[in-house]
Amino acid sequence: MENISKAAQKEIVGQVLDEMKEIEKVAVEDWNATWKEQYTNAYSKDLLEHGDLSYQMIDDIEKENNNYYDLKNLLNKDVKGKVPLKKVKLLVNGEKIDCDFGKVIWSNMKTNNTLRLFSFDNYGNVEMFKENKNSSYDARYNISDDDFYIGMNNKKSKNQIIVENKDKKLTKCFNNFKLIQDFNDGTKTVKIDCKNKLKNDPSIHFESRYDSDRNLEYAFLKIDKHKSNGKVNGTYRIDANWQKGIRVSYYSRKGNKQSIEENPQLIEEFSDLILPILTSKTEENIYISSFINAIKNITNNNINENDLFYENNYFGLNSIDLIENKIDDELRTIKGEIPSNKLINNIHFAINSRKLPNYYDEYRPNMLKKQAKKQSHTK
Question: Residue 180 half-sphere exposure, CB side, CA atoms within 13 Å?
């Protein structure tokens, strides 16, 4: 972003200023909020040309201006002027000196027992944070592209949720569960990583991938045993691949591979390790259980193992709906009070992503047309 032209940055700064006005209007009219405004990412030709610019001098100038301005980056000799977000007159020994700032922070914003923070910079980056006794969330997005990040923490349920869109890949996380929807090729990948709570507890790693037609391409479940010191002491693995079929293997600590079908002791140990997964009611383990049960059903009933990969007969994307619905429900709880139309559109996209396989080819252009039409009416 730092290599963009001055004209492009000027346009972005204009969009950021509009975004600030939109959020400020909600904060004042709807929340009746007050806050502290601070400026950072400073540039001042007059100060930079000052021969004896020092930390003490910067500290004195900040205090003279009631600490509204963070000027410490001026001590970096490589500071260069950019299109500013804010131009101010600084008091320096009683005289007024021009100074540009690339970032504005609204901090200590309190509304209805809720603490909020917002920041904006001259490259289009916007950040917001909210926390109260029940929950917290933080969000990051850029005015000029579709990338965004939203992290949520529900203090009552202890659920942690992350939703991120980057490089045309939408990632949704629910605790240990991660779903990656790739709009470049239409695939969906599920990853689950349950680390051992105690050093000698087993850790679970699971991954599966579906093609653009919702058929399973591959899946694997890996269970690592651990010694009392936490080191891996053997690994059980189930692999399901449409090219190689279904394989269940054991790898010793030294990496030697064995088929567990040839060792009753390994079969018994593996059964003991997967039992807690099959009986657990957590969302992640319910999903893994559906995979294990699909494998069991195929092997026990001599069903063609290719049925695992086609038409979702035994194990398909329907298994993840429960988790994705929970993520989307959490997003809906904050959507109504988000003060930014840009971020609201991002949330809308995340919630409706399952219905929009061709988002970048069809949905987004139509959305941009609607936004342009709306803006033309408001001017």
Answer: 15
Query: Could you tell me the CA-to-CA distances from 102 to 11, 13, 156, 309, 358 in Å, in that order?
Result: 14, 9, 38, 52, 36
Q: What is the 3-state secondary structure (H, E, C) of 123-141?
A: CCEEEEEEECCCEEEEEEE
Residues 6+ apart with CB under 8 A from 282: 175
230 secondary structure, DSSP code: S
CB 292 within 8 A of CB 274: yes
Phi, psi at 297, each rounded to 5°: -60, -40
From first to last of its 379 residues, the chain has per-residue pLDDT tens of: 567 888 999 999 999 999 999 999 999 999 999 999 999 999 998 888 776 778 898 999 999 998 899 999 888 767 777 899 999 999 988 889 999 999 999 999 988 889 999 999 999 999 999 999 989 999 999 998 989 999 999 888 888 999 999 999 999 999 989 999 998 888 899 999 987 666 667 889 999 998 887 778 889 999 998 888 878 888 999 888 877 778 888 888 888 888 787 788 888 888 888 888 888 877 788 888 888 887 877 777 666 666 666 544 446 666 688 888 989 999 998 988 899 999 999 999 999 887 655 555 554 555 555 555 545 554 4
Residues in the chain: 379
